[in-house]
């Protein structure tokens, strides 16, 4: 017996990761290419991609490495981070993630690979989890309506500023911020306020609103409770004074402190904002974390972001859905007051489950322990002659050591503890859930004092003001009392996950959303302590591994896109848009062109483009889209000429929102540049370009990228995301920066876009690993297979559904749009009917009615294998045959499997009065009984839920019907 000789080098190489990431193997690719009439991937993309944008050479990236090698390299980077006990505070705290939540939520693909719950019938698990989150926030803040999470505390506060201006009685005046608010929050608000003409005033409000400020008018006030210094003050008189001036009052609150302190709602606040990070979510060098906002009832329908509500399904049973979806930004567009179109779902689920697992008693115990450590620490410092500035505090102390602050902080660092130097005389010290006796000893030693914990514990008095102690109940709903044992919690999480459809079940062919593989190797490092437990304001010397990873990722993203500089600070695509537009605005202003404020946007663009432009202080002018899906060249040139002197920027998505490679993109860019404007290439569809074309080289000046799309960060049920912004050299001086970390951006930058210096740094190892695993050739092949898969689906479905738009050679890019409108007109079967019927076939529907009403936009990505692509095509073809039965009269137009979809297991019981069989309902062609996905509810009545807005957990007796 002989074997072919293979070299050791070849054996060491192993299976290239791209073969794990790309679904169709070589044989499958050959079949797909033959079906659409091409002999190779290169031949296909040479035809599909216009010559004028093609990259001249391969991407200059390091050679691809194996999974084992990349993990080893990441371990090396992690080892360069130094994780000290963090007592810095400022909104970021050590926390203990219960392992049952870590393993079964954060590390579970059933939770992290799901998409935004736009198809609520197959999202009931995560919607229930989000309702738990909303209930937790509403109860603790004492305000009745909470959203389903925002990006972080800083942006939540900025959204509160905008909300205050919109709903309050005072339409002019200033936004007043107490000086004891978190510095990063103040900075984010200032960044957001300046382009829209809002004046921000920061003042010490401990003695009330200064008369000179009151005289100018105040539309909103922001307070921190407890303050950044740790001070706990009673704000009732201040809130009353603000209300007398007609101002809306926002309280930025610490949820853990609110388990012991009177809620903002009871104190009189109109809005509460903050972060849920310390409820079991690792610091992650700044994110991702779920911010929150809760409001009084009268502001519920004006909340930015997403809101989970309770409705009913077709059988009248309670069911959850996203409420008020018409507020989503693709509808509000240039009339939007916020560009938030996402959330932090995965992190909100973790925080909500932390409250479910601990319950009110457990949370109070954690809070009391945290507070007690702070009290004992303060007692020891006072006994040693150190002045503690405030008598009332929850977890944070400010110690006065004249001229010695730097010395104390350095000594604490030597003892393994990070403190915060406020100035030359003041040191901030924050306790949290993870604080132990060793940290107290280290801090005392740094101040040059010694203490006995037991003696000091006996001597330390309570420091929370009696008048502010909380007396009302909270978290009374049974969900916060039922799951104390790990067994019970494990089963609850499994029950919720089983209700949902995520990538671990099958393909999610959502156009524009790029639901591709989130490889385990890429995900694993996120939970390593060296990445998860680092405070974002830790000294840069302790974060060398992180900073190297960030620098390399920024450089590699710049290489991929053809830009000169990338900032990864924006923690969502919408925030990347805002950062890019602010850079354009700052560039024009630096050149003396303040009049350049017009932003041209094609009518087909996603609504966040227009919303971001408004937030950046620009005037939106809409450009028509032609019948072929391309930008109407005549209308574009006419509007360029009309606004030539005022033109700031053109925002264009490429490939177009209609899923085609527009051939005239370089001429469009040239025309805008000739008029003195800049070109913003929206990077939402970058998965069709990587390795084939670079926006920064075919005419773009600035782009945001979606790392939660093209670069494999999972969608997490609707968040987290990362939206880096890439720019050419002339815009680089105007990228985001941060007041607490000088290395996070240029000194001339526009200010922080996110609360943390490097945004959601904790999930950047995912994209770093993806690029490292794939290399230049792997990334290019991934793009080519994405284009191949989309064209294969388009070709298979074309005989049954019209494909609405095509580009060069009759090809689509990485997604295709099929038109259901003629079928609806002929048969009455709606786009909703098709989407819900796909659930019976075991699929998540493609993107509905965007960018064209009555259509489905399908994006298969490169990760789905041929078997799954064919299963989807077979389902769509079978549904087309079902539509024909309705059209021919064989099935009743009002009582058929499409109109009644989806069908639950419960619907099969009892009498069956439908004119089609049970088998036709739940086991249509191609569906195996043993592999059947059963939706937990029937079709949900959205209008009922919007009319009867319920946004927290209803009592159990509400489910009796």
UniProtKB/TrEMBL annotation:
Q: Which domain of life is it from?
A: Bacteria
**EC identifiers of the protein:** 1.4.4.2
What's its catalytic activity?
A: N(6)-[(R)-lipoyl]-L-lysyl-[glycine-cleavage complex H protein] + glycine + H(+) = N(6)-[(R)-S(8)-aminomethyldihydrolipoyl]-L-lysyl-[glycine-cleavage complex H protein] + CO2
**Where are the N6-(pyridoxal phosphate)lysine residues found in this chain?**
709
Ribonucleoprotein as UniProt keyword? no
What keywords were assigned to this record?
Oxidoreductase, Pyridoxal phosphate
> Where would I find the Glycine cleavage system P-protein N-terminal domain in this sequence?
19-446, 453-736
The chain positions of domain Glycine dehydrogenase C-terminal read: 782-903
Is-annotated flag, keyword Ribosomal protein? no
Cofactor section: pyridoxal 5'-phosphate
Checking InterPro entries in the record gives: GcvP, GDC-P_C, GDC-P_N, GDC_P, PyrdxlP-dep_Trfase, PyrdxlP-dep_Trfase_major, PyrdxlP-dep_Trfase_small
- Gene3D superfamilies xref list: Aspartate Aminotransferase, domain 1, Type I PLP-dependent aspartate aminotransferase-like (Major domain)
Family per similarity comment:
Belongs to the GcvP family.
What's this protein's function?
The glycine cleavage system catalyzes the degradation of glycine. The P protein binds the alpha-amino group of glycine through its pyridoxal phosphate cofactor; CO(2) is released and the remaining methylamine moiety is then transferred to the lipoamide cofactor of the H protein.
Q: How does it assemble?
A: The glycine cleavage system is composed of four proteins: P, T, L and H.
What is the name listed in the Swiss-Prot or TrEMBL entry for this protein?
A: Glycine dehydrogenase (decarboxylating)
Please tell me the species this chain comes from.
Streptomyces caniferus
| Lineage of origin | Bacteria, Bacillati, Actinomycetota, Actinomycetes, Kitasatosporales
- This protein's gene is called gcvP
């Amino acid at each position: 017996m002989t074997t072919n000789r293979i070299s050791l080098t070849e054996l060491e190489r192993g299976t290239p990761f791209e073969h794990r990431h790309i679904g169709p193997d070589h044989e499958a690719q050959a079949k797909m290419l033959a079906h659409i009439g091409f002999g190779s991937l290169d031949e296909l993309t040479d035809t599909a991609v216009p010559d004028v944008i093609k990259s001249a050479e391969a991407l200059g990236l390091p050679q691809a490495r194996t999974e084992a090698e990349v993990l080893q390299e990441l371990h090396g980077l992690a080892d360069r981070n130094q994780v000290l006990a963090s007592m810095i505070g400022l909104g970021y705290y050590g926390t203990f993630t219960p392992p049952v939540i870590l393993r079964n939520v954060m590390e579970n693909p059933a939770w992290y690979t799901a998409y935004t719950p736009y198809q609520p019938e197959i999202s009931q698990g995560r919607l229930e989890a989000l309702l738990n989150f909303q209930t937790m926030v509403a109860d603790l803040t004492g305000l009745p309506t909470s959203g389903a999470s925002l990006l972080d505390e800083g942006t939540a506060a900025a959204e509160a500023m905008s909300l205050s201006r919109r709903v309050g009685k005072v339409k002019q005046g200033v936004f007043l911020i107490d000086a004891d608010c978190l510095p990063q929050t103040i900075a984010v608000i200032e960044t957001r306020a300046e382009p829209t003409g809002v004046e921000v005033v920061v003042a010490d409000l401990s003695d009330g609103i200064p008369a000179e400020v009151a005289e100018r008018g105040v539309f909103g006030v922001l307070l921190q409770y407890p303050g950044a210094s740790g001070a706990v003050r009673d704000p009732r008189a201040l809130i009353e004074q603000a209300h007398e001036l007609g101002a809306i009052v926002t309280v930025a609150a610490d949820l853990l402190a609110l388990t012991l302190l009177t809620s903002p709602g009871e104190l009189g606040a109109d809005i509460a904002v903050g972060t849920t990070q310390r409820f079991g979510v690792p610091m992650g060098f700044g994110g991702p974390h779920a911010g929150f906002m809760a409001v009084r009832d009268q502001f519920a329908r004006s909340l930015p972001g997403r809101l989970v509500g309770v409705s009913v399904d077709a059988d009248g049973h309670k069911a959850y859905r996203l409420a008020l979806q018409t507020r989503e930004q693709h509808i509000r567009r240039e009339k939007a007051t916020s560009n938030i179109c996402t959330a932090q779902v995965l992190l909100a689920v973790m925080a909500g489950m932390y409250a479910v697992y601990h319950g009110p008693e457990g949370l109070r115990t954690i809070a009391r322990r945290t507070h007690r450590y702070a009290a004992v620490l303060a007692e020891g410092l006072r006994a040693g002659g150190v002045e503690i500035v405030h008598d009332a505090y929850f977890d944070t102390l400010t110690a006065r050591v004249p001229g010695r602050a730097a010395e104390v902080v350095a000594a604490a660092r030597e003892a393994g503890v990070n403190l915060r130097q406020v100035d030359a005389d003041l040191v901030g010290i924050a306790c949290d859930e993870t604080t132990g006796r060793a940290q107290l000893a280290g801090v005392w030693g740094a101040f040059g004092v010694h203490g006995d914990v037991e003696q000091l514990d006996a001597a330390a008095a309570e420091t929370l003001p009696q008048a502010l102690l909380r007396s009302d109940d909270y978290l009374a709903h049974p969900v916060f009392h039922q799951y104390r044992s790990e067994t019970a919690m494990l089963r609850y999480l499994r029950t919720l996950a089983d209700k949902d459809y995520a990538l671990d079940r099958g393909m999610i062919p959502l156009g524009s959303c790029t639901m591709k593989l989130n490889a385990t190797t890429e995900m694993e490092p996120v939970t390593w302590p060296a990445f998860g437990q680092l405070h974002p304001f830790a000294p840069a010397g302790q974060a060398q591994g992180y900073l190297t990873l960030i620098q390399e990722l920024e450089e590699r993203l710049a290489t991929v896109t053809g830009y000169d500089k990338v900032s990864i600070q924006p923690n969502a695509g919408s925030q990347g848009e805002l950062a890019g537009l602010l850079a354009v605005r700052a560039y024009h202003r630096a050149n003396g062109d303040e009049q350049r404020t017009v932003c041209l946007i094609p009518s087909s663009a996603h609504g966040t483009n227009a919303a971001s432009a408004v937030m950046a202080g620009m005037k939106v002018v809409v450009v028509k889209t032609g019948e072929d899906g391309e930008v109407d060249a005549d209308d574009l040139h006419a509007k360029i000429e009309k606004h030539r002197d005022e033109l700031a920027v053109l925002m264009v998505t490429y490939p177009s929102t209609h899923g085609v490679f527009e051939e005239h993109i370089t001429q469009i860019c040239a025309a805008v540049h000739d008029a003195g404007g800049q070109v913003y290439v929206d990077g939402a569809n970058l998965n069709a370009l990587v390795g084939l074309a670079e926006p920064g080289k075919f005419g773009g000046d600035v782009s945001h990228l979606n790392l939660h799309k093209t670069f494999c960060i999972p969608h997490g049920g609707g968040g987290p995301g990362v939206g880096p912004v890439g720019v050419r050299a002339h815009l680089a001086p105007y990228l985001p920066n941060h007041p607490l970390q000088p290395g996070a951006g240029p000194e001339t930058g526009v200010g922080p876009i996110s609360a943390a210096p490097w945004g959601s740094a904790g999930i950047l190892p995912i994209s770093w690993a993806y690029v490292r695993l794939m290399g230049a050739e792997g990334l290019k092949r991934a793009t080519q297979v994405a284009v191949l898969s989309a064209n294969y689906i388009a070709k298979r479905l074309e005989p049954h559904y019209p494909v609405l738009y095509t580009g060069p050679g009759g090809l689509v890019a990485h997604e295709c749009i099929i038109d259901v409108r003629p079928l609806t007109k002929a048969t009455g079967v709606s786009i909703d009917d098709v989407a819900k019927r796909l659930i019976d076939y075991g699929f998540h529907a493609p993107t509905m009615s965007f960018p064209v009403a009555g259509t489905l936009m399908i994006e298969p990505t490169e990760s789905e294998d041929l078997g799954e692509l064919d299963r989807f095509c077979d389902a769509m073809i079978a549904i087309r045959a079902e539509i024909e039965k309705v059209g021919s009269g064989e099935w009743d137009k009002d009582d058929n499997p499409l109109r009644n979809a989806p069908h639950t297991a419960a619907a099969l019981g009892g009498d069956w009065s439908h004119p089609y069989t049970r088998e036709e309902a739940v086991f249509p062609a191609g569906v195996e009984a043993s592999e059947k996905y059963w939706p937990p509810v029937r079709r949900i009545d959205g209008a009922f839920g919007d009319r009867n807005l319920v946004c927290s957990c209803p009592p159990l007796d509400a489910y009796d019907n």
